[in-house]
Each structure stands twice: as C-alpha cells, then as structure tokens.
Write a structure and sequence with these properties.
Layout (H helix, E strand, L loop, with lengths): L3 H10 L1 H7 L4 E7 L4 E9 L5 E2 L2 E4 L4 H21 L5 E8 L8 H13 L4 E2 L8 H10 L17 H20 L8 E5 L3 H12 L3 E5 L3 H10 L4 E2 L12 E4 L8 H4 L6 E2 L10 H10 L3 E2 L2 H4 L2 H11 L3 H9 L1 H15 L3 H20 L3
Parallel strand pairs: 3-5, 3-6, 4-5, 7-8, 7-10, 8-9, 10-11, 11-12
Antiparallel strand pairs: 1-2, 2-5
Helix pairs in contact: 1-2, 3-15, 4-5, 6-7, 6-12, 6-13, 6-14, 12-13, 14-15
Bound molecules: nicotinamide-adenine-dinucleotide (NAD).
Length: 367
C-alpha cells in the first residue's frame, strides 16, 4: 500500500499533477482504435468564456511530449484571449500523428465528436498540421469550431488581420522607442514571408520602411520580391546579424535565445511568431538588459484570434480589423506598465492578462 507521501508524489508526476502547475481546469484524453485517433484536449481557463484555441497535429515521439505541448499552448491561449479583450478562455487540442500520412476524414470527424461532447466549453480552430478542409470535417460533427471556409459561414484566412495587428504593434513600439509611430525609413528584417510575413511586408513597404526578408523557400522570396521590388533578400543564416532597427520574427518560435541575443543589433523585436522567447523568464529579462524593446508575441499576434472570434460573436472582417487596431493601445499600455514597474515587457503582458481574468472572476458570482 502507498503512503500518503507516495500518493501525493505520484499525482504530482502524473497528468493531474501537471494540470496543477498552471491550474488547468480540464484535460480530455481521446482514443478511437477504428480511426487511429489519439488526441488530447486541454481546457486551461474558462473564466472569460469558452476555451478557444486551435488543434495541432504533430508526430510527437512520446505522449508526455504531447501533454506538455497542449498544456503550455492552452495556457498561452488564455493569456492571448484575455489581453485581446475577448470574452474567451484558453484551450488547445493536439492530435498525435503525422499530418501528411495519418489524417483521414474519419479521424477528423471522430475528433469532431469529441469536441462536440464538451458542449461548447471548448471551441476549436486550425493550427499546425490542420487545414480548412480538416475543419470542414470537424464541422460536420460539431458547431463548436471556427476558422471554417467563408463558403460555410466562416471568417476565412486570419493572416491579413494578424499581420495588421503586428504592424500597428510595431508602430506602438516605434513610438515608445523613437517618439514617433512612423516606420518610414526604418530598417526592418522580416524572418519568414509566409501567410503573415508577406502581408506584413506589404504594410511596411507602403509606409516607406527599408525591408529585408529571409525565408527557407525561394518561391516565397520570389513572390514577395515580385510584389514589392524594393525589398532586399538576405541569407537566412545572417538574419540575426543584420544592422536593423526592428527584427520581426514571423516564422518559428524560440528565435530569441542565448545565441541570437549576442548577435541581434536591433532596437525593437516585434513579429508574429508564437513563443519567440526561448526561455520566457531568462530571455525576457535579457532583452530588457540589452535595451531591446520586446513587443510580447501573444499581444501583437492576437489579430488571428480576434478574426476567428468574429465567428463566435457574429461580426465581419471590417469589425475584426477595427478591433485589431486596438493592439496599438494594448501594446503601448504594456510598455507603460513595464517602464513604471521596471519589469520586462513579457511580464507586464502576463500581469495584464491575469488582472483581467481576476477582475472578471470577481464579478461572476455577483447578481
Ligand atoms: P506560414 O507557414 O505561412 O509562414 C511561415 C514562413 O516561415 C514560411 O514561408 C516558411 O518557409 C518560413 N520559415 C520557416 N523556417 C524558417 C527559417 N528558419 N528562416 C526563415 N524562414 C523560415 O505561417 P504563418 O501563418 O505566416 O505564421 C507565421 C508565424 O506566426 C507562426 O509562428 C505562427 O504560429 C504565428 N501566428 C500566425 C497566425 C496567423 O494568423 N497565421 C496567428 C498568430 C500567430
């Protein structure tokens, strides 16, 4: 028989113990032998509303990796949705498997049934490895899904709204750093010119910025160069060494790390990529010490979730863009808090999210 201490330790190391680390409300493990579905849905916090966050399909090498990922990502959604001022909590789902070889209509529809079983407490959307067609299958089994094609009443590609939000956040950062929100004449490197990066480049070029671009795919670079002949293509390996005013990571996470912080010469970091700081606490502090103004990723890239929220709240693209405009003020307020309290900007953003959740939790019980 286990002692009480052994029982406590076993819980602490298991999935329920891990849920306790960031106070997750509910985690649903989904299995279906017939379709091969193995998925985890994590609901972090529903104080502000139903937990919204995308579904990622990834070939995790171990279940524990999938659990860690879904717990981390769902918490991130709570913070993103809270700071964006949306009436949404945070959630996320992961499907364990290779998106190129293991996806099928039956698997996605079975997953849709699991989402439906949560009766709207979790609302799903697209993420890495999942496309609009997959969401159509999910939509056949549940109405608790966003990011479906416009033809089915969805809001379509969120990238233009995300890019617009990053652009206005960059202007807020410029104002904070140089006293003017103009980006004209500023040298800006954009790492990754995919969906978001390419729309961002359009805004920057239009405003008269000198834009440097890097991508791992030649065709992406060629297309962006064709649309904006003034941009300069740089080798991806040298992107961190460029003498620029602003570095805009729009490809991968964790690009702000021990190595790159020794190389970056920029005054501002502001881009669309999720989880830019390899280690939030360490590198969030280091950017501050180095005098780089870091615009927190989940604040500046919230245009995407603002766009999908339009499906939940029933408003259109125009209104979504006007809501994304608020990202300028939200980012500016976070810089102000960071200065006032002498704390890194990522921490100011986290505190802003936590304050809103706490305030809304306190009015919940009132009649
Ligand atoms: P995407 O896949 O369309 O574009 C990413 C681009 O980065 C691709 O062109 C890819 O070739 C390039 N890339 C990959 N590795 C690279 C490297 N090492 N160096 C240079 N380029 C590289 O993705 P996206 O939808 O544009 O999203 C970009 C980032 O923004 C992602 O981190 C995503 O999670 C985040 N984000 C996107 C949205 C959205 O609305 N699409 C919303 C919020 C956050």
């Amino acid at each position: 028989m286990q002692t009480k201490t052994e029982q406590t330790a076993a819980v602490a190391n298991g999935p329920i113990g891990q849920m306790g680390v960031f106070d997750h409300e509910q985690v649903v493990f989904c299995n279906d032998n017939a379709t091969g579905l193995k998925a985890i849905i994590a609901i972090h916090n529903t104080v502000l509303g139903p937990a919204l966050g995308g579904t990622r399909m990834w070939a995790y090498t171990h279940e524990s990796e999938a659990l860690t990922d879904v717990l981390r990502l769902s918490r991130g959604m709570t913070y993103k949705n809270a700071v964006a001022g949306l009436n949404l909590g945070g959630g996320k789902a992961v499907i364990i498997g290779d998106a190129r070889t293991q996806k099928s209509e039956a698997l996605m529809r079975r997953f849709g049934k699991f989402v439906n079983s949560l009766s709207g407490k979790y609302i799903t959307a697209e993420d890495v490895g999942i496309n609009a067609k997959d969401m159509e299958y999910v939509h056949m089994e549940t109405k608790h899904v966003t990011g479906i094609p416009p033809a089915l009443g969805g809001s379509g590609d969120p990238s233009p709204v995300t890019a617009y939000g990053v652009y206005v956040a960059m202007k807020a950062a410029a104002k904070e750093r140089w006293g003017s929100d103009s980006l004209s004449g500023k040298k800006i490197s954009v790492q990754g010119v995919g969906h978001v990066g390419s729309y961002l480049v359009n805004h920057l070029v239009k405003e008269g910025a000198k834009v440097l671009i890097a991508d791992i795919y030649e065709d992406r670079l060629a297309e962006v160069k064709k649309n904006n002949p003034a941009v300069e293509i740089v080798d991806g390996n040298t992107i961190y060494d460029q003498d620029v005013d602003i570095y805009a990571p729009c490809a991968l996470g964790a690009t702000v790390n021990d190595d790159t912080l020794n190389r970056l010469k920029c005054s501002i970091i502001c881009g669309a990529a999720n989880n830019q700081l390899a280690d939030e606490v360490k590198h969030g502090q280091l950017v501050m010490q180095k005098g780089i103004l870091y615009a927190p990723d989940f604040v500046v890239n919230s245009g995407g979730v603002i766009n999908v929220y339009s499906e939940v709240a029933g408003f259109g693209r125009e209104y979504a863009l006007s809501q994304a405009e608020n990202i300028f003020n939200t980012t500016a307020n976070i810089f102000a808090m960071s200065k006032q309290e002498n704390i890194p900007t990522y921490l100011a953003a986290n505190k802003t999210a936590e304050a809103r959740i706490e305030a809304m939790a306190s009015i919940r019980t009132k009649r």
